[in-house]
Fold this protein.
Amino acid sequence: MTERLAPGLLGAGLGERATLVQFSSAFCQPCRATRRTLAEVAAMVPGVAHVEIDAEERLGLVRALGITRTPTVLVLDADGRIVRRAAGQPRRADVIAALGRAL
């Protein structure tokens, strides 16, 4: 994948080295656990940001990216290119491994 997401499109700045973008919805139980996991990883790895996007509020972006369920996590490199994408609640080890592709 080489699609790029600009900070303006996300509504937040990109991380210096990588960005974890989480698409969530209000009543999604796995989204809460995903939020904790991604926040922990972002805090552990210097230069990594975690951005959470409410899928219901950003339907245009959800459709443009083909997001079909929450949580969906995109891993972006420093330039905003999507290097990894996964749906469902991720394990911390998988997030760290995916970040390796972005750093």
